[in-house]
Amino acid sequence: FRLLAFSRRVASKNPTVYPAGVAIWLQTLKTLLRKTRGEQKQPPELQERLRRHVDVPSELIGEPNSLRPSAIEAAREYLRRQLRSMGHEVTEHAFSTSLRKAVNLEVILRGSPGNAGTLVVGAHYDSAIGTPGADDNASAVAILLEVARKLPQARLKRDVRLVFYDCEEPPHFHLGEMGSRQHARELRARGERVIG
Predict the structure, then answer these.
(1) Strands annotated E in the chain
(2) Fewer CB within 10 Å, N side or C side of the chain?
(3) Cα-based torsion angle of the residue sequence 123, 129, 135, 141 in order, rounded to the nearest 10 degrees
């Protein structure tokens, strides 16, 4: 509930800071938290999927980061399999860092024709060195996977890019080699109008 309250404060104090992105995360959090407040029980299969999406990278694979390239590839393959099993086409955006080749995974959901801009919703699938990454950031990856499962059922007014970023943790964070930065450069180079 603290995260939900914090997100609401940020959105209310500065409504120009990614309002659409904040709205999607708030709605997702509200839906996931309803069970806790007793408003609506979430299906056991949703609870199980969320748990699995956190447990696989953080516990079964363990510590997906640049010092463990086989773990980062295993986490990436888990994401590919999950997204493809939902019927999504997964686009891979490879880029080089000082330590390794990195890959952002992206699913594009098309909105109505003539839409007004693109919404980018992302989470990173690498963990900090020395941590399993359950809280940072497998929990957000789990939510993004479930957004990928549900969002295609909605009528979208604009294109939505669901992006699973690589290389968001140090040392890449400190070197400007982050996957989100690379993705932003690619969008800017194509002249895509990102609204949040």
Answers:
(1) 91-96, 101-109, 118-124, 159-165
(2) N
(3) 30
DSSP state of 170: T
CB 58, CB 133: distance < 8 Å: yes
Q: pTM here?
A: 0.80
Helices then strands, counting H and E runs in the chain, come out as 7, 4
Is residue 20 within a helix (H) or strand (E), and if so which, with residue range?
A: helix 19-37
pLDDT in tens, 80-105: 999 999 999 999 999 999 999 999 99
* Structure token pair of residue 134: 């359950």
With beta carbons less than 8 A apart as the criterion, state whether 125 and 164 touch: yes
What CA–CA distance (Å, rounded) separates 183 from 38? 39
Query: What gap in Å lies between CA 10 and CA 173, rounded to an integer?
Result: 24
- From first CA to last CA, the distance across the chain in angstroms is 23
| Backbone φ/ψ region at 41: left (φ over 0), alpha (ψ -120 to 50), beta | beta
- Among 49, 104, 99, residue whose Cα is nearest residue 69: 99
- CA distance linking residue 67 with residue 152, whole number of Å: 35
Query: pLDDT, tens digit, for every residue of 119-134?
Result: 999 999 999 999 988 8
β-pair partners for 96? 101
* Per-residue model confidence as pLDDT tens digits over 138-165: 999 999 999 999 998 888 889 999 999 9
